[in-house]
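Prompt: I keep going back and forth on a fold encoding question. Comparing notes only helps if you start from a blank page. Show me how you would write down a chain together with its backbone fold. Please set it down just below, with no commentary around it:
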Amino acid sequence: MKIPFTKMHGAGNDYVYVNGFEVTLADPGAVARAVSPRRTGVGSDGLILIQPSAVAAVRMEMYNADGSRGEMCGNGIRCVGKYAYEHGLAQENPLRVETDAGVKTLELDVADGKVRSVNVDMGEPILDPARIPGRFNGPRVVDAPLEVDGEACQVTCVSMGNPHCVLFLPEIAALDLEAIGPRFEHHERFPKRVNTEFVQVLWRGEVNMRVWERGSGETAACGTGACAAAVAGVLTGRTDRRVLVHLAGGDLSIEWRERDGHVYMRGEAVEVFRGEIEMIEPSA
């Protein structure tokens, strides 16, 4: 089966996008596993399908590099908005996109028919441990103690439609995330695994961040993770409500507005190239 695709990224967080209005995939998880490897596939953090929706302009379905289903991707949804607008799937602006974490509203910055950046209303953060989900006591997990392989650390947990565990550290550049990340992702306190953000505060309006995403490993950026880090910064008193988040793939501007309690994320959306991949059935 030949599958047309578009490679896109937001702040370096890259996915293979397939137009579900034209193509039906019987096993999206298998396609995600096939296209994601950097040496033997297209190279991506996963697969995103852009599907018809009964409640919004389009529906986004996200699959991690390991084929597992993800509820939401902040960088990915910006690219969904760009694709839908530029490929004629939807022309409204603001644009509503259905996800497994609910319907999100996107404001598109358009010039000469091209979407340059997108501001996403990510909704209210979820702080109840049972809904994140995480096995912690109390109404919130803020600078809570967590033992990881015998080492004590402090974590703040937030869901932006998917689970996040945020650590604030004095330095993050030298961290061996390949060794550290899986210990958090598969920790017994997180029944659905967890995305983990390692954050260095530069001042109250600016942070550096690295991220280990469940099912994908370390990625160049994570939109929902940047939102979770911003919320955690406010909850712990380390940052203001508006913060610039520096990631390996670029910058994201995040604001947790006091007025409505919603988190807003602004960043780029970039089309890299288009192609076609042929899925070959494995030999018996």
Notes: The helical segments are 28-35, 74-86, 177-185, 223-235. The chain has four helices and 18 strands.
